[in-house]
Amino acid sequence: MGEALAQHPPSMFIYENEHHNWTGRTDPEDGALAVRWHHRVRRIEPGQARQPLPALVGFACDAGVARNQGRRGAAAGPVVLRRALANLAWRHETPGVWDFGDVRCHGDALETAQEALASTVAVMLEEGHRPVVLGGGHETAYGSFGGLDRWARGARPDARIGILNLDAHFDLRRVGAAGPSSGTPFGQIHDDLTERGAPFRYACVGISRTANTAALFERAAATGTRWRLDEDCTVRHLDATLAFVSDFVAECDLVHLTLDLDVLPGAVMPAVSAPAPRGVPLEVIEAVIDRVLAARGPQGPKLALADLAELNPAVDPQGLGARVAALLCDRLVGSSPVP
Question: Where is Mn(2+) 2 bound in this sequence (predicted)?
Answer without folding.
Answer: 167, 169, 260, 262
